[in-house]
Amino acid sequence: MRHPVRSLLTVLGVSTGMFLFTSVETMQAGMLACTKPSEGDNELIVYRKDRFCPFTSKLPEHYAERMKQVPGVKAIIPIKILVNSCGTSLDIISLQGIADESLKEFDSSFSITSGSRDSWYKRQDAAIVGDVLAARRKLKVGDMFETSGVTIYVAAIMKADDYQLKNAAFVHKNFLQKVSKDGLGIVTQFNVLVKPGIDMKTVSRAIDDEFSTDTEPTHTRTKQEFIVKTADELVRLISFTRWIGLAAVLAVLGLVANTISMAVRGRVKENAILQTIGYNSVEIMYLVVIEGVILGLTGGLVAIAGVLAFLYFGKFSLTSEGATIVFFPDAIVVLSGIAISLALGMLAGLLPAYRASKQDIVNSLRMVC
Q1: Sign of the C-alpha dihedral computed for residues 103, 104, 108 and 112 taken in this order
Q2: Are the CB atoms for 256 and 64 separated by under 8 Å?
Q3: Contact, 95 vs 83, CB < 8 A?
Q4: 3-class DSSP state for residue 171?
C-alpha cells in the first residue's frame, strides 16, 4: 500500500498475462469438448470421399435407401449444408437443411428456449437458430436475416448440447436445395445413427464399401473423427497456443518475483526491526511470500473476471471447413486459473523471502532506507 503505483502496475501486468493464459486454456477446453468422444455416441458422418468443405461434398440423396440395408444402421438423416465461407472465421453461419420428419432425431441434442417447433413446420423459409449464433447476430424470434444469398425467418432459438449446433440453424432441406445451385436430390452429408452394441468401424467400412465403385464414393467416420479431420488446421493452431499460455505464465512469474525483490530490498531496515522485536526467519519468509500471493491472486482474479465477461458477451466461436469450436467459460479453467495465480505468487516470493530471512540484523540496521 505504500507503493501504490508499483503495486497497481504489477497487478495489471499479472492480470494481462493471466488473461492471455486463461483465454488460451478456454480455447483448449473448447477444442477438447468438441472433439473428445462422448459416452454412448452412436453417430457416423458420411461425406464425399476426399472432400472437406460443404461446398465440395455432393452426394445423391438416394444413397439413403442403400445405407438402410447396411447391418447395424438404425436411421439415416440426409443433410444439406450451406455455409457462408469454408475458411477459418469467427463469423460463420452453417445452415443445415433437414427433412421435416428428421427433426425428431435431434430432440436429445437441443431444447427450444424461444419460439416453437410448430412455427418451423409452418414456414418453408423458417429456421431454428443456435443460441451462440442468435446472440452473436442479435437475432430473436420473428427476425429475418440473410446469409449466403438466402433470407431466413427465425422461428425458434435452441440451446444445444452439441457444440456444432450452437453456431448453426436448422432449415427445411427442400427449401435449401431449391435455393442452392445443386438443386433437388443432392445433399452434403448423411448422419447415420447406429444401433446400440454395434461396432461403429464395422458399419462405417460397410457403408464405404457399398459406394466404393459409384461415381460419388463416400468416406465415413465418427462425428468426433470428422470434426478433428475437417478442422485439422484449426485444431493444430489451437494446440500451438498452449505454448503462448506457458510463455504468459513465465512472464507473470518473472514480473511478480521482480516486484517482490524490489520490495524486499527497499525494506531491509524494517525487516531487521521485526527480527529485533521477536520475528524469526520463518515468519519473515511468510510475510514476503504472502505479499507475492496477494499480488498474484489479485491479478489472477481480475484476469478471470475479464475473461468471463469477454466470453459471455462475445459468444465467440471459431469455424473452419464448416466445423465449429465454441469458446465458453468453463469452471475447471476458472478454478485452475485461480490456483495457478496463487501458486505463481507463492513461487515468485520464495527466493526474495529466503534472502530476507537470512539477512544479518546488525548490518541491516546500519543501512539507511
Answers
A1: positive
A2: no
A3: yes
A4: strand
DSSP track, 48-102: ETT--STTT--EETTHHHHHTTSTTEEEEEEEEEEES-SS-BS---EEEEE-GGG
Running DSSP on this structure, what letter comes out for residue 162? S
* Residue 142 phi, psi (nearest 5): 100, -15
CA dist 10 → 15, 23, 39, 341, 353 (Å): 8, 20, 45, 13, 18
What does the DSSP assignment read for 174-219? HHHHHHSSS-TTEESEEEEEEPTTS-HHHHHHHHHHHTTTSSS-EE
In DSSP terms, 79 is beta-bridged to 189
pLDDT, tens only, 41-75: 788 999 999 877 888 889 999 999 999 999 999 98
Q: Which of 324, 288, 322 is nearest to 80 (CA)?
A: 322
pTM over 0.90? The answer is no
| 68 within 8 A of 76, measured Cβ to Cβ | yes
Q: What is the pLDDT of residue 321?
A: 63
pLDDT, tens digit (0-9, with 9 covering 90-100), for 125-135? 999 999 888 88
Helices (H), the chain: 4-35, 63-67, 117-122, 131-137, 173-179, 200-210, 223-230, 232-265, 268-276, 281-314, 331-357, 361-366
C-alpha 229/C-alpha 27 separation (Å) is 18
Helix (H, G, I), strand (E, B) or coil at 250: helix
The answer to whether residue 369 scores a pLDDT higher than 50 is: no
